[in-house]
Specification:
Layout lengths: L1 H27 L2 H8 L53 H16 L7 E5 L2 H4 L5 E2 L2 H7 L5 E6 L5 E7 L4 E2 L3 H7 L7 E8 L2 E7 L1 H61 L1
Helix pairs in contact: 3-7
Subcellular location: Nucleus
Organism: Linum tenue
GO molecular function: DNA binding
């Protein structure tokens, strides 16, 4: 026990001696003063100045820089044509009626110029703006390579669109045609090929078709009401005629009975 205590005391003594020696060496080398001078001294007189608010520069409305290759082309508008949540979907009845009207119109066109009916879907007018054409029609009548096609509306206004032969459809330019002519879901278009790279486009609008069908339904209801009124009038006339006939028969019977009584009284 005493030996262990002596060892602890000797260790503490050795440690203290080393600390004293290191301190003396640092004083001899002047390290304490150097460390004190190297330590940054706080300056109580210097207060940080408050940050000045930056003055915003006025916005300069200048046209965006564009490549010279597309400088002459109209700028691209990234604003959506309509809110997708407000899409209007055509009913199956309106869609079928528009197709029927388009087929009737197609039957009146010159058969020398091939034609086809294309019903409009949301993907054609508000979604992808890509219009696929009938494959057999494309392989039979349209160019075998990509070509610019002209779409001529009913007002003789031409529009350019890109025909992709490999995909048998219209791509670039179809979006502008759909927007300019306000095509919606349910419309039916009749494409008539008047030249190898030119379509005459006839538009049957779904909203107009709906109005026509409602008008026809209203006309049918009015005709049914008129027919019902006419039947009622005829029924009343027959009833009145029957009543008059019954009265005449009663008068005739009473006359006969009266004459019979007179003859019996004379006898």
């Amino acid at each position: 026990m005493v030996g262990a205590k002596k060892k602890v005391m000797s260790y503490e003594e050795v440690r203290r001696q080393r600390v004293e020696e290191n301190k003396k060496r640092m004083e001899d080398l002047n390290l304490l003063k150097l460390a004190k001078h190297l330590r940054p001294q706080p300056n109580p007189s210097s207060n940080p100045s408050p940050a000045k608010p930056r003055a915003r520069r006025p916005a300069v409305l200048a046209p965006a820089r564009r490549s010279s290759r597309i400088a002459d082309q109209p700028s691209v508008s990234y604003r959506e044509r309509r809110d997708l949540l407000n899409r209007v979907y055509a009913s199956s009845e309106v869609r079928q009626y528009a197709i029927h009207r388009a087929e009737e119109l197609q039957s009146t066109l010159d058969p020398e110029h091939p034609s086809f009916v294309k019903p409009m879907l949301q993907s054609h007018v508000t979604g992808g703006f890509w219009l696929g054409l009938p494959s057999l029609f494309c392989k039979t009548y349209l160019p075998k390579e990509d070509e610019m096609m002209t779409l001529i509306d009913e007002g003789e206004e031409p529009s350019q669109t890109k025909y992709l032969a490999g995909k048998t459809g219209l791509s670039g330019g179809w979006r502008g045609f759909a927007i300019d002519h306000e095509l919606v879901d349910g419309d039916a278009l009749v494409f008539q090929l008047v030249s190898p790279t030119e379509f005459k486009v006839h538009i049957i609008r779904a909203n107009e078709v709906g109005g026509d069908s409602e008008k026809e339904n209203q006309d049918e209801e009015e005709e049914e009401e008129d027919e019902a009124l006419e039947k009622g009038k005829r029924a009343k006339a027959k009833a009145a005629e029957k009543e008059n006939k019954n009265e005449e028969d009663d008068d005739l019977d009473s006359t006969r009975r009266r004459s019979k009584r007179i003859r019996t009284g004379r006898k």
